[in-house]
Amino acid sequence: MEGIEKIKEVAALAVPGAQIEIVNSTPAAQQPALLVNREHVHAVAKFFKEDPRFQMDFCSCVTGVDYLPKADKPGFIEVVYHLYSVAQRQGPIVLKVRAPRELDSCRVPSLTPLWRGCEFQEREAYDLYGVKFDGHPDLRRILMWDEFTDHPMRKDYAPPADYEWEPTPHDDTLQRSAQAGGIVPPTAIQELEKARKK
Amino acid sequence: MIQPLAEPGRYTLTAGPIGRADARPSGEGLIETQKLEVSIGPQHPSTHGVFRMDCVLDGETVIALKPVMGYLHRNHEQLAERMAWLGSMPYTDRLDYFNSMTNNWAYALAVERLAGIKVPDRAEYIRVIMSELTRILNHSCVIGFMLQDLGAWGTPLLYAFRERERILDLFEAVSGSRMMCNYMRFGGVRVDMTPKDLAAANDIVARFPRFLDEFEKLLTTNEVLLARTQRIGILPKELAINAGISGPMARASGVEYDVRKIDRYGVYGRFDFRVPVGDVGDVYDRYYVRVLEMRQSINILQQALRDIPAGPHIAPEVKLRNFKIPPGDGYGRIEAPKGELGFYLVSDEGGKQPYRYHVRPPSFINLTTLEDMCLGHKVADVVIVLGSIDIVLGEVDR
């Protein structure tokens, strides 16, 4: 496979209007990535999949990364795709796409219609980072439970202090027992106090 | 021809009318049957851990199946992002707790790629020996578990465990722990293998083919095994590639792809071995590809134990204290027994700990096509199909 400059040129030529930038990896890793704008990432990915020079038929890894805002730059969520070609035994081509951190506008087009291998991994990125993938056939939480409301891998996520406690059928009994001066484990009393304050 | 995606909401589990309202006449129009929603797991012994499958059954035939996971989720990735680079090395053991050596290697390889560390030859050979021993350990036990799912209670599994015990003894001698080995370090391995350890490894390698012959004699042409596994859970080649399936499961479907051959990481370029490939892609092929892979692993082990050079077991210039990586990202992957195990790591300013640490777990992604493989089969076959995928929930849920 040619150098990243050449790949970028070819892709920019094939998908008119796409804004493609080269992002460097660590100096040793030698895995530069292509940062594509949200509107064109599907077309660019499709080009890499179907073009006979690349034939990227295997989407190996999908990752969400949260970058907090810095002094001069706004924060963003980045989704990274690692594409390999099984047919031509080459790769990886690394595609990156960025979305704003705000939950309403944190949307990127899904690549699951191109590679089914993205299905669970995009669900994972949605679950843990809150990225909504437009065009994903079954975008649900996958690792956290369905009733969970936050996205725990975000860098600014603060876990609730009492996440392990939830009301149990024994609460009334414990309360009556406490009122009657019975022996109740101290933690249970504290939790009852906490629940009463709510 | 790639199979179309499951349409969203084709079967809305726990929502649609199920029971009498959904009853329909059977083929002959004599008996009315109804669709039944069955939740297999998370406490069912055949799900290999806390994994759940929501199935919709028509009689005994599966017409929809959704995998449900996350019962063992402990946010492994976030824990690793709060530790120094080396701090999560012992925790990678707990991903796929059957194959801690290969998990260690995958993480060490990714970090070495980011930091540009060169590993001495002896360390590379020790890593190959450990990872191939892990592969035969995993494959023999997986076959044992799969047969247990078929109803061969205990016997094949105990045969496999007898061999596993010898390998675990060696792991204990070398690393100090049987399963949670925590053996690899950036730039090499933690302790060298003594001549006694190498002799023990040679002994294991010498007696393993005999076990495998016996194992195969009992199983490969066994009538019950053939009847229960052939033409069950077929995964077409195109779908396997498109769905990101890797490892023995992809190779059973005819995808000739082995990261050991493609990337030639470590010293795999120096060994002469072949990559077995199936052609039907059913459960039987997945069984037999694993048997053949074990034979190839023995082949690699013989070469590695013959050629292992003298020298340092860890790169002397790597300082594990105050270890830092320049800003940037990178992806490293290896061929773990279950498939392609990769780590995507991001380092930021300071570089003392990973800013982002992502695991690409093979058994998690291999579950993508579970529904496609089970549709149209009986509910008893679901268990075998799941067994042939070879999942470990520590890795699926992370």
Please write out the topology:
The complex is a heterodimer of chains A (198) and B (398).
Chain A: H1 4-14, E1 20-23, E2 33-36, H2 41-50, E3 58-67, E4 76-85, E5 90-99, E6 107-109, H3 118-129, E7 132-134, H4 171-179, H5 186-197
Parallel strand pairs in A: 2-5, 6-7
Antiparallel strand pairs in A: 1-2, 3-4, 4-5
Chain B: E1 24-25, E2 32-33, E3 35-40, E4 52-58, E5 61-68, H1 76-81, H2 89-92, H3 100-115, H4 121-150, H5 155-175, E6 184-185, E7 188-189, H6 195-219, H7 223-229, H8 237-242, H9 248-252, H10 259-262, H11 283-307, E8 328-336, E9 339-347, E10 356-360, H12 362-366, H13 370-374, H14 379-389, H15 393-397
Antiparallel strand pairs in B: 1-2, 3-4, 4-5, 6-7, 8-9, 9-10
Keywords:
heterodimer, A: 198 residues, alpha/beta, Beta Polymerase, domain 2, five-stranded mixed beta sheet, 5 helices, 7 strands, 27% helix, elongated, B: 398 residues, three-stranded antiparallel beta sheet, 10 strands, disordered N terminus
Describe the structure.
The complex is a heterodimer of chains A (198) and B (398). Chain A has five helices and seven strands; from the N terminus they run H-E-E-H-E-E-E-E-H-E-H-H. By secondary structure, chain A is of the alpha/beta class. Chain A folds into two domains: 4-134, 2-Layer Sandwich (Beta Polymerase, domain 2), CATH 3.30.460.80; 159-198, no CATH class. Chain A has a five-stranded mixed β-sheet with strand order 1-2-5-4-3. In chain A, a hairpin with an 8-residue loop joins strand 3 (58-67) and strand 4. Chain A is elongated and about 80 Å long. The N and C termini of chain A lie far apart (61 Å). Chain B has 398 residues and is an alpha+beta fold. Helices cover 44% and strands 13% of the residues of chain B. Chain B is built from 15 helices and ten strands. Chain B has helices at 76-81, 89-92, 100-115, 121-150, 155-175, 195-219, 223-229, 237-242, 248-252, 259-262, 283-307, 362-366, 370-374, 379-389, 393-397, and strands spanning 24-25, 32-33, 35-40, 52-58, 61-68, 184-185, 188-189, 328-336, 339-347, 356-360. In chain B, the strands form four sheets. Chain B has a three-stranded antiparallel β-sheet with strand order 3-4-5. In chain B, strand 4 and strand 5 form a beta hairpin. In chain B, helix 4 runs antiparallel to helix 5, helix 4 packs antiparallel against helix 11 and helix 5 (155-175) packs antiparallel against helix 6. The longest helix of chain B is centred in the middle third of the chain and has 30 residues, at 121-150. In chain B, 50% of the residues are buried. The interface between A and B is large, with 41 and 48 residues.
